[in-house]
Amino acid sequence: xxxxxxxxxxxxxxxxxxxxxxxxxxxxxxxxxxxxxxxxxxxxxxxxxxxxxxxxxxxxxxxxxxxxxxxxxxxxxxxxxxxxxxxxxxxxxxxxxxxxxxxxxxxxxxxxxxxxxxxxxxxxxxxxxx
Amino acid sequence: xxxxxxxxxxxxxxxxxxxxxxxxxxxxxxxxxxxxxxxxxxxxxxxxxxxxxxxxxxxxxxxxxxxxxxxxxxxxxxxxxxxxxxxxxxxxxxxxxxxxxxxxxxxxxxxxxxxxxxxxxxxxxxxxxxxxxxxxxxxxxxxxxxxxxxxxxxxxxxxxxxxxxxxxxxxxxxxxxxxxxxxxxxxxxxxxxxxxxxxxxxxxxxxxxxxxxxxxxxxxxxxxxxxxxxxxxxxxxxxxxxxxxxxxxxxxxxxxxxxxxxxxxxxxxxxxxxxxxxxxxxxxxxxxxxxxxxxxxxxxxxxxxxxxxxxxxxxxxxxxxxxxxxxxxxxxxxxxxxxxxxxxxxxxxxxxxxxxxxxxxxxxxxxxxxxxxxxxxxxxxxxxxxxxxx
Amino acid sequence: xxxxxxxxxxxxxxxxxxxxxxxxxxxxxxxxxxxxxxxxxxxxxxxxxxxxxxxxxxxxxxxxxxxxxxxxxxxxxxxxxxxxxxxxxxxxxxxxxxxxxxxxxxxxxxxxxxxxxxxxxxxxxxxxxxxxxxxxxxxxxxxxxxxxxxxxxxxxxxxxxxxxxxxxxxxxxxxxxxxxxxxxxxxxxxxxxxxxxxxxxxxxxxxxxxxxxxxxxxxxxxxxxxxxxxxxxxxxxxxxxxxxxxxxxxxxxxxxxxxxxxxxxxxxxxxxxxxxxxxxxxxxxxxxxxxxxxxxxxxxxxxxxxxxxxxxxxxxxxxxxxxxxxxx
Lengths: 130, 390, 328
Ligand SMILES: [Cu+2]
Description:
The structure holds three protein chains of three kinds. By secondary structure, chain B is mostly helical. In chain B, 51% of the residues lie in helices and 0% in strands. Chain B starts with a helix and ends in an 8-residue tail after the last helix. At the B-C interface, loops of B face helix 5 of C.
């Protein structure tokens, strides 16, 4: 075994945290969108008012969220393609663990991106607070 | 223990057989004694030799033991009772009038002598004016509500009216400070006028004793001695008065004060009394105090329109219909003291009032009213003119 | 005619919830119900297609030889069939569903009929707000002109109820402290049933109503009749009934326009006799039931917020029922 701290696949540079970045962005996007719409309709536009401001805000959240997810997913893709491994990355080696975590990150990023888009879909069809 | 016994009678305590023998002797002796005791006791009871004569009194030790038990029980059981504010003239008056009817005959009154007959009870009722100082309000409440077992002290006729019991306690608190004249003034009120009482439909002939008894509280004019303690009966509808007295008599309306009084009335007496009070001149409309006008205005709105958001119906449709046939079973509330009305509404709300076959109409209505709204609508009715004077 | 229809259907309806045309979202009589039915059929069709393909694939998988496919193609198939297709199908459904919604909850065009319905434990307060101004109050029954949009403004003073006429459209919750809206376009005449679709307490099951879709002219006539004050009693019995109604204080809770009864706690009874049902869509509206309702209210409808009047003498009950039945 080589010196752990210098090995490119060592856990400290590979924290599991990066796995849940995309779902977290999704959750944040969902919450923010809801809260923004609720506050907008209650305090600004009124029950029957237009959703315009909230729609713009949600559009911005969506773009930011998708960019974040894309960066996270890109990182996943890079780790997934590390060296010369083939899916399903199930060998008992640090390299395959590295690739596996990258692959899982990539899949979660894809799922989160779709979920963010689904949530944003609502304001495409609704233009008032009803 | 067994070894000690063996040594005492000089046997060998080391021998297990002897120890077993001694144990058997002890067990059989005790069992025998018990059996003899039970048989003797039974014989004693069956023979009728035990005196239950009240005249024979208790032995001093029995009396001490019974009273000690009673004191301890009362003290413990009344722990944690919330004592309401008792220094209220109406409460004292209500308690006093009941004391005169329901308690004096056993416990005596200020300035009076100890009633002779109850003195012959064992244990005999104490002369209360002198005892009160030794009991806390919560203890008085407990005794009056629950009575005392194995003595002649009765429980309150209903367990649903703590407010009435507190009225008695309020009076008991005041009793030690009263002399004979003050007591009489309190329980009897002003003397009835010598001139005949004015009624609307001519004077009905009633047994003097009957009206005499009701008068103490409801006044000779049926106006409740001008106190919030008693409802006004004058000018009330006959049907309602009759229903109320019947409901009290049958225990369907709960009141430790009115239930015993009504229970003795036959239906002819109930009819005559209802007619008598119905025919008395209804209360004059009084002028409200300045500070009540806002509440009265709110009360008027409730009475006339109800409170839509709380789904409270208007009251006047049932209680003071204008220009309509009035349902005899529905009481007129005009001129009734606000305190009395609020009390009844609270009782309805808590499911403690009871009443006639019509009483369930009021339960949901009262339970949807807030306390301030009860007070407001009660004030409105207190200062509303009776239909006969509109 | 309608009445007999109602009576004969009365039991049948309860037995066949959703089965007959009276209360079925699959036999639509309104634009919204048609769309919902269309959505339902599309989804059912789609489900069948997906199911059949899955079964076919399973069969194929059992019989296929592994060598027939490269690993790469198999992986592509998994990604395509397992991730891509569901995403596209769900995305399509979501888009379709969302695109329907704005229309379903949009305001009706200006000048359309508006009906304010309040769901209360356990009945319906109904107010027709007329385009030309003024309003007509009734309860426990809704009549609609055919072929016109109608806007319902819904609310509740107590707990959440839900307003639903399955044959005409979707359901909408009635939420305390908030007004919700529902627009319906009935497309054919007939008598349909509406229900409360959200559990709301003891008598939730007994909180229903009839929705009658009528020709425009009939509807106009009906509304004009409802606007009138109560019919004058003509015979001694109904005259007496009116007196009892006032003397017993029914008027504290009920409105009967024209006789000085202006209570708002319970349903407006001005034209009770003209309704298809009693006690919120679940009892036949006849003399006997009416008498039973007044005398044994709490037995007929558990928890009901109207006190019973069992203590009234029989002749008084009879006169009351006769009077109310005469209020056509
Ligand atoms: Cu319900």
